Structures are given as structure tokens and as C-alpha cells.
């Protein structure tokens, strides 16, 4: 096992990793920008190294500075968290080339899944069903027209290098295809420096269902069931549940078998998530994330597993040590992402937290790096906390989340807590009857 790990991240996820390390008896090194000198992850780590100025490009994405910090502190492994360098194959490779362990999959697998076209062709070859669309990259608008006519409108033009909902444009009809084609490519070129695009049928009422996977270095792969992440705005998740109100245990077993067999054949190791759109009883693979997900806690609650501890153990070369049949599901978990945003316009709202009082009690978990007096910097992601509840049934989890949201005090900045309250009060949400399009229709209705 490692004796010291460097955490190449900030905010709640840096704390999350730090907590797992501490329970394993592993020393931690925090890295931070000048804007984060007072951050909680810096305060709680055994050692901290400043790696650059506020801009992430010069600090949290600064590979040379992070590697120097690891070398001078004698860290043996690097946990990348999510975002920043977590899905950067070159970074993983460089870390390993310096004799350190990257806590995640191999650089080859990160690279393979980072290109969504390669990800889809790989999964198809391994027997995983896909959303209907183009066979790989589209090289001309004419080709896009042919594929769109074959799969039927509406269609989606998507960037091969896409992420965070960027580089994705809908064409409702053939008339809109040229604009969608141009816009998706321009956005992809600007955001990712790569304008390769592909086409998918735009599904009208799917749910976003994803499967949590762990693999060891010896070909053993298990899954921890599904998360329903259909509540999204601008293709960004806001509230997640485990399990999905729409999936039966039999369906979970079936898709779980397909996914674990595929990843075992690939030799996939460490944590990963397969994302599917689910409609009319069919799972259609869209992409794989080769890292820990923001919403991993809902899985931890229903499976009673510490996924970060598992990531560290597996990266250290330990075997999984359990089989699929040993993984059981208990109760229901919900996560609300608390963003420092205006709950109506969603404009980011950085500033000083005048009062911070997180909720507590049975079945309530808050993953956050906030404290009273903390200044939320304007340079990074607006998510400031995750509120997670666990209860025996979905109905009880909803009641628990409502009371936890009522207890949650964050003064001085605006947050999306009021929006979460409205969602949890809504009869359709309470029935579990929603798709990926529901939240945008719901917020439009609220703004009415
Ligand atoms: P990103 O990597 O940018 O997150 P994804 O491929 O994971 O992109 O898609 C993000 C979200 O966009 C999905 O959860 C879903 O809501 C929507 N989406 C993606 N593909 C489709 C599709 N073919 N039809 C309808 N919605 C889609």
C-alpha cells in the first residue's frame, strides 16, 4: 500500500480523497493555486504545495508543477479526482513515466474512451448496444445528410472530443442540419482543439442511466448498479438517484453482465462509468468516463462501499477480493448538487459565505469544502456542495432530502437550494416519471 498520495484537485473532491487516505493510514499532499491558499483541502492535508496562480491552466492543469510537488514531497501516487487532469491520458502516462502510480485506468484506456467515436466502436465490438447513428466520424455535410435520413430526424451532431455538454447540437429537421454541423464543429474546435464530429439519433424521451464499474489489475470486473442522472440542464447533471426509479433488478443484472464482460475483455482497471440513454426498455451506450464521477456517493450509500478506498487499493495492486454476487443494494439514495448559482437564471454567484450550517441526522451526508467566512473563488466550477441522503425507500429518501434542504443554511451567496426544494415537491418527480428533458421544461414552467 502507498504511504503518501498527492491529490491533484481542489474543493469537495480533494476532501473526499483525503478522507479515504486518512482512513487507510496514508499521508496526503494537497496542491493548490494562490486563490485557494485558505481552502479546506489545504488546511486538512498533511502537506500542501502551491502550484501556481488562480487560473487552472497555470495551476491545477500544470503538469510540471504537480509532478515537482509529488517529487519534493515524496508522494508515491497521484489521485486526480474528477475534472482537471483526471481524463488526460498524457498526464497519466507522464505520472507513470516518473515512477509514480496514477490512481485510475491505464493511459491507453483513458485515450480510447476520451475519443467518443473510438469508445463507441470499441463497445459495439464488445457487444454493448449503441444509440443509432453514424459508423464513426463524419467527414462531410453530405455524409451527415445521408446518415440523418437513414436514422430519421431529429438528430444530434456530437464532438468526438466532447465533454461537459459542449460540442453537441440538435437538428430537428433537414433544414437545421447545416447549422448544427457548423456550430458543433466550431464549438468543438474552440473547446477541444479537435473538430471531429459524429451523428446520433436525438432520442425524444430517454433517461440517462449510468453503471458504476470497478476492475482490478487481474481481469476481475464488477458493477455497483446504476445511477439515474436524468435531471439535467444544458446536459449537466443536477440531481442523481440510486437506483433508478425506472430500472428493475433484472434489467440491472442484464446490463451489468453485458458491461462487466465487455470491460473484463478489455482488461479495464480501476473505476469507470458507462453512460447509457435508456428508452422503451433499451439501453444505448453513449460514452464511458474513465474516472470517479461527481455523483459516486449515491452508489456508495446503497452498496455500502467506499469507492475511493477501492480505487486506491486497486491502484496499489490489490485484488478486488469479492465477486458480483457479494455486491448488494439496500434502500435508495439521492444527491442534490448545490451550485453557487442563481436558482432562476443559473448565473454563477461567487462571493463570501457569511453563514454556513450543513444539515445532519440519520442518513444525511454532505460532501463540501465550505466553511463560514470562505470566499468562493470565481475561477472554478460553481459546485460548492453535494447533499446526499439515504433511506429505506425512495419515498423516505425524498422526505429526508426535503428536511435536509430545509436545514441547509448557506448565506451570503446564491445557491440552487430553492430549485431543489421545488423539484422535490413536484408530483411528477415524486412519481419518478421524468426524462432528460424534464428539468428544462420544469424550469421554463417556473419562469413561466
Ligand atoms: P458530455 O460528455 O458532454 O457529457 P454525453 O455524450 O455524455 O456528453 O451526453 C450528455 C447528455 O446529453 C446526456 O446525458 C443526454 O442528456 C444528452 N444526450 C447525449 N446524446 C443524446 C442523444 N443521442 N439523444 C438525446 N440526448 C442526448
UniProtKB/TrEMBL annotation:
<keyword id="KW-0436">Ligase</keyword>
<comment type="subunit">
    <text>Acetyl-CoA carboxylase is a heterohexamer of biotin carboxyl carrier protein, biotin carboxylase and the two subunits of carboxyl transferase in a 2:2 complex.</text>
</comment>
<dbReference type="GO" id="GO:0004075">
    <property type="term" value="F:biotin carboxylase activity"/>
</dbReference>
<keyword id="KW-0479">Metal-binding</keyword>
<comment type="pathway">
    <text>Lipid metabolism; malonyl-CoA biosynthesis; malonyl-CoA from acetyl-CoA: step 1/1.</text>
</comment>
<dbReference type="InterPro" id="IPR005479">
    <property type="entry name" value="CPAse_ATP-bd"/>
</dbReference>
<keyword id="KW-0275">Fatty acid biosynthesis</keyword>
<dbReference type="InterPro" id="IPR013815">
    <property type="entry name" value="ATP_grasp_subdomain_1"/>
</dbReference>
<keyword id="KW-0067">ATP-binding</keyword>
<dbReference type="InterPro" id="IPR011764">
    <property type="entry name" value="Biotin_carboxylation_dom"/>
</dbReference>
<dbReference type="GO" id="GO:0005524">
    <property type="term" value="F:ATP binding"/>
</dbReference>
<feature type="domain" description="ATP-grasp">
    <location>
        <begin position="120"/>
        <end position="316"/>
    </location>
</feature>
<dbReference type="InterPro" id="IPR011761">
    <property type="entry name" value="ATP-grasp"/>
</dbReference>
<dbReference type="InterPro" id="IPR004549">
    <property type="entry name" value="Acetyl_CoA_COase_biotin_COase"/>
</dbReference>
<keyword id="KW-0444">Lipid biosynthesis</keyword>
<keyword id="KW-0547">Nucleotide-binding</keyword>
<keyword id="KW-0460">Magnesium</keyword>
<dbReference type="GO" id="GO:0006633">
    <property type="term" value="P:fatty acid biosynthetic process"/>
</dbReference>
<dbReference type="Pfam" id="PF02785">
    <property type="entry name" value="Biotin_carb_C"/>
</dbReference>
<dbReference type="Pfam" id="PF00289">
    <property type="entry name" value="Biotin_carb_N"/>
</dbReference>
<protein>
    <recommendedName>
        <fullName>Biotin carboxylase</fullName>
        <ecNumber>6.3.4.14</ecNumber>
    </recommendedName>
</protein>
<dbReference type="InterPro" id="IPR011054">
    <property type="entry name" value="Rudment_hybrid_motif"/>
</dbReference>
<keyword id="KW-0443">Lipid metabolism</keyword>
<dbReference type="InterPro" id="IPR051602">
    <property type="entry name" value="ACC_Biotin_Carboxylase"/>
</dbReference>
<keyword id="KW-0092">Biotin</keyword>
<dbReference type="InterPro" id="IPR016185">
    <property type="entry name" value="PreATP-grasp_dom_sf"/>
</dbReference>
<feature type="domain" description="Biotin carboxylation">
    <location>
        <begin position="1"/>
        <end position="444"/>
    </location>
</feature>
<dbReference type="GO" id="GO:0046872">
    <property type="term" value="F:metal ion binding"/>
</dbReference>
<dbReference type="Pfam" id="PF02786">
    <property type="entry name" value="CPSase_L_D2"/>
</dbReference>
<keyword id="KW-0276">Fatty acid metabolism</keyword>
<dbReference type="InterPro" id="IPR005482">
    <property type="entry name" value="Biotin_COase_C"/>
</dbReference>
<comment type="function">
    <text>This protein is a component of the acetyl coenzyme A carboxylase complex; first, biotin carboxylase catalyzes the carboxylation of the carrier protein and then the transcarboxylase transfers the carboxyl group to form malonyl-CoA.</text>
</comment>
<dbReference type="InterPro" id="IPR005481">
    <property type="entry name" value="BC-like_N"/>
</dbReference>
Amino acid at each position: 500500500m502507498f504511504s503518501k498520495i498527492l491529490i491533484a484537485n481542489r474543493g469537495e473532491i480533494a476532501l473526499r480523497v483525503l478522507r479515504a487516505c486518512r482512513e487507510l493510514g496514508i499521508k496526503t499532499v494537497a496542491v493548490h493555486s494562490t486563490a485557494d491558499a485558505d481552502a479546506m483541502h489545504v488546511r486538512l492535508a498533511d502537506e500542501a504545495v502551491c502550484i501556481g496562480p488562480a487560473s487552472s491552466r497555470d495551476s491545477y492543469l500544470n503538469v510540471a508543477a504537480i509532478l515537482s510537488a509529488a517529487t519534493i514531497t515524496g508522494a508515491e501516487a497521484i489521485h486526480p479526482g474528477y475534472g482537471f487532469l483526471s481524463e488526460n491520458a498524457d498526464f497519466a502516462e507522464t505520472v507513470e513515466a516518473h515512477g509514480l502510480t496514477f490512481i485510475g485506468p491505464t493511459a491507453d484506456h483513458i485515450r480510447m474512451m476520451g475519443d467518443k467515436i473510438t469508445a463507441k466502436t470499441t463497445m459495439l465490438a464488445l457487444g454493448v448496444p449503441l444509440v443509432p447513428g453514424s459508423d464513426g466520424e463524419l467527414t462531410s455535410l453530405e455524409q451527415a445528410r445521408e446518415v440523418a435520413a437513414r436514422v430519421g430526424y431529429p438528430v444530434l451532431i456530437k464532438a468526438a472530443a466532447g465533454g461537459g455538454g459542449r460540442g453537441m447540437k440538435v437538428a430537428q429537421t433537414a433544414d437545421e442540419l447545416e447549422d448544427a454541423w457548423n456550430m458543433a464543429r466550431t464549438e468543438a474546435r474552440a473547446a477541444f482543439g479537435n473538430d471531429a464530429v459524429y451523428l446520433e439519433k436525438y432520442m425524444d424521451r430517454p433517461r440517462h442511466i449510468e453503471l458504476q464499474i470497478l476492475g482490478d489489475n487481474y481481469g476481475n470486473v464488477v458493477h455497483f448498479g446504476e445511477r439515474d442522472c436524468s435531471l439535467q440542464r444544458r446536459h449537466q447533471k443536477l440531481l442523481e438517484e440510486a437506483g433508478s426509479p425506472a430500472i428493475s433488478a433484472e434489467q440491472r443484472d442484464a446490463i451489468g453482465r453485458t458491461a462487466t464482460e465487455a470491460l473484463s475483455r478489455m482488461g479495464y482497471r480501476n473505476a469507470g462509468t458507462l453512460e447509457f440513454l435508456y428508452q422503451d426498455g433499451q439501453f444505448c451506450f453513449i460514452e464511458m468516463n474513465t474516472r470517479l464521477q461527481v455523483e459516486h456517493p449515491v452508489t456508495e450509500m446503497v452498496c455500502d462501499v467506499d469507492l475511493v478506498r477501492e480505487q486506491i487499493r486497486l491502484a496499489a495492486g490489490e485484488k478486488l477480493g469479492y465477486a458480483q454476487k457479494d455486491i448488494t443494494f439496500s434502500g435508495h439514495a439521492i444527491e442534490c448538487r448545490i451550485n453557487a448559482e442563481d436558482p432562476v437564471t443559473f448565473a454563477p454567484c461567487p462571493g463570501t459565505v457569511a453563514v454556513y450550517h450543513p444539515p445532519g441526522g440519520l442518513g444525511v451526508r454532505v460532501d463540501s469544502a465550505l466553511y463560514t467566512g470562505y470566499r468562493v473563488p470565481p475561477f472554478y466550477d460553481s459546485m460548492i456542495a453535494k447533499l446526499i441522503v439515504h433511506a429505506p425507500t425512495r419515498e423516505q429518501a425524498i422526505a429526508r432530502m426535503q428536511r435536509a434542504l430545509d436545514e441547509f443554511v448557506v448565506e451570503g451567496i446564491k445557491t440552487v437550494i430553492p430549485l431543489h426544494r421545488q423539484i422535490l415537491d413536484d408530483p411528477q418527480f415524486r412519481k419518478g416519471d421524468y426524462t432528460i428533458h424534464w428539468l428544462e421544461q420544469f424550469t421554463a414552467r417556473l419562469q413561466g
